[in-house]
Model the fold of this input.
Amino acid sequence: MLIGNARCSTSNQDLTAQRHALHGLGADVDMVHADHGFAGTKRDRPGLKKDLAECRNGDTFVVTKLDRLARSLPDARDIADELTRKGVILNIGGSIYDPHDPAGKLLFNVPGMVAEFESDFVRARTREGMAVANVIASRQ
Done:
């Protein structure tokens, strides 16, 4: 069975493009679960939980991009390890992750590191913006 997962961080974002891409990668409409309004830094997402619980030996779990699965490299690795232990294939945007291949590990870890960096960078910019707003508010 092919199980797809989509995620967007805010309720203002649309999952249509991800759903369409997952269907293009072979995921059945009924087997695509979505987490709408959940940050990738949150591992405890209802759609992801459902998907991981449904995955069985021989299944394929598909996401459009690694940052849709997780924004934390440790979380991405934990999920990939869980899938590997279950005998589930991880398909990331059409590329099959092979945890036993050094190049496969590299091609998994680099985008995972970039996703984590982007998430950390957004948080840092948000903190800076809030600090500036607090200074401006205190002057009024």
Summary: The beta strands are 2-8, 32-36, 60-63, 89-92, 95-97. The chain has one domain: 2-139. The chain is about 55% helix and 15% strand. The domain at 2-139 is CATH 3.40.50.1390 (Rossmann fold).
